[in-house]
Every structure is written in structure tokens, then in C-alpha cells.
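sry for the spam today, last one i promise. C-alpha cells for design, 126 residues
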């Protein structure tokens, strides 16, 4: 998996890294059981601080995307409670949909956008 960081973005680097790993899982670019690079290795490859990588990995662990193993490092290990995941997604989507309403984006446009994104993920090799 190739990680690209936009150093000019307003989004924190650890969030960019987290998001790219989640997208990699969703597109099957990385799969359950795959090892992520070590904190030191990824930090050196991207040119960022090790603490930034560690923070991204810790958040991914808390969110149930990775397991941190002393011997194997960070390993993709999906562990989720679907009911809790839906509740969290609903909370996040409320804000996103509120932003859409403020920008006069219609329900139909939102549905088209969501369908398009879901097709992107389902067309991958999952």
C-alpha cells in the first residue's frame, strides 16, 4: 500500500494516515492478517515523526481495525460490534448531512453520491 501525505492539508497527518489505511482495507488493498509497516519504517518512508504514526495506529486499534502485537507489530484485525458501528456512523453522518443541507445539496444528490462511492468499493476485488 502506498501512503501519500498532503503536508499542506488542514487535516492532521495522523488522520490522513488513518483514513488511507481504512480505505486500503475497504478496497482490499490490504487484508485482514496483513502486517502494516513498523512505526519506525513507516515514519521514515513518509518523512514524518514516529509519534504521528504511533498515534494513527493507536486510533486504528481503538476503532477495531488493527491489533498491536509485540512480535508482529500492527496487524489488520477487524474487530467490531455492528450495532455500535452503526450508531457511530449515524452520529458522523448527521454532521456530514447537516453540512450538505447547509450547502443546498439535495437528498437525491446525496443518494447518488453514496451509491457511486459504494460501487467503487464493491467493484474492487472484495
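last one done:
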Amino acid at each position: 500500500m502506498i501512503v501519500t501525505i498532503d503536508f499542506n492539508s488542514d487535516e492532521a497527518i495522523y488522520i490522513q494516515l488513518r483514513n488511507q489505511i481504512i480505505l486500503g482495507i475497504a478496497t482490499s488493498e490490504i487484508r485482514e492478517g496483513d502486517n502494516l509497516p513498523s512505526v519506525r519504517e513507516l515514519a521514515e518512508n513518509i518523512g514524518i515523526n514516529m509519534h504521528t504514526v504511533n498515534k494513527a495506529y493507536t486510533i486504528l486499534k481503538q476503532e477495531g481495525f488493527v491489533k498491536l502485537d509485540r512480535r508482529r507489530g500492527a496487524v489488520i484485525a477487524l474487530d467490531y460490534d455492528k450495532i455500535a458501528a452503526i450508531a457511530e456512523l449515524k452520529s458522523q453522518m448527521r454532521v456530514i448531512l447537516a453540512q450538505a443541507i447547509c450547502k443546498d445539496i439535495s437528498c437525491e444528490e446525496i443518494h447518488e453520491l453514496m451509491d457511486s462511492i459504494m460501487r467503487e468499493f464493491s467493484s474492487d476485488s472484495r
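The first strand starts at residue 66 and ends at 69. ok im logging off now
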